[in-house]
Amino acid sequence: FPEVVLADNADDKTAYLKDILNSHIELDVKLLGDVSSSDVLYKLILLLANRVGSKMDYSKIGNLLGINRLKVKEYILLLEYTYLIKTIKPFAKGIDKEITKQSKIYFADTGLLQICGQTSSGAIFENVIAHQLSLIGELNYYEKSSGTEIDFILDKKNAIEVKETLGGFDIKSLQKRSKPLELEQNILIGRELAPSGFKDFVWGGNVF
User: Fold this and answer.
1) 24/124 Cα distance (integer angstroms)
2) Tell me: the pLDDT tens digits for 124-179?
């Protein structure tokens, strides 16, 4: 959003972002979907902001909002259709597992994410990388039943791990986790320059 970037100070940027969010809900989302209450949508967006990078539990979110899980899923699809959020499906060999496993949630704009929730710098950085990667290819995440996971799988052939600070152990760990999947490449993306002098990663720089 150009007006946000060009704003003179943080207060003006926040005001612009709030106006953009309000307009998005009232003029885009509500007109396109069967939405009876703006309040529920606002609350849903706040809940999603605090769960960015996490798997979505429609039933739990529905209980918090006082609506059923099918309505939650409908609203989330609507928010994705209007480009407010992006969902990432799990990487799976079979379509059955891909459909039944929960998707992860990310925001399309980091500024909107930051005004909607108390999000850690690590989660914000991961959100930025998720958005950029989704523009260049098919993006999934991977998780075993044991809980071991890989942040992103790009185009079903590249394993990607995102951390603010990285070290030599991280690349070995990623290689070990991705080996059973027979992927072509392992990539680390870090925000901070590694204090240990480790350089075998892509530097994301300061994204804030």
Assistant:
1) 21
2) 999 999 999 999 999 999 998 777 899 999 999 999 999 888 777 888 899 999 99
For the beta sheet containing 185-190, the strands, ordered from the edge strand earlier in sequence to the opposite edge, are 104-107, 85-90, 139-143, 149-154, 158-163, 185-190, 202-203
SS3 87: strand
- Residues of the chain predicted below pLDDT 70: 1-7, 93-100, 193-208
- DSSP E strands: which ranges in the chain? 85-90, 104-107, 139-143, 149-154, 158-163, 185-190, 202-203
Q: Which two tokens stand for residue 50?
A: 């605090």
Placement of tokens 């309040």 in the chain: 39
Fold of the domain built from segment(s) 1-119: Arc Repressor Mutant, subunit A (1.10.10)
- Indicate the pTM of the whole model: 0.85
Domain boundaries, the chain: 1-119, 124-208
The Cα–Cα gap between 180 and 173 comes to: 13
**Token pair recorded at residue 93:** 């060999």
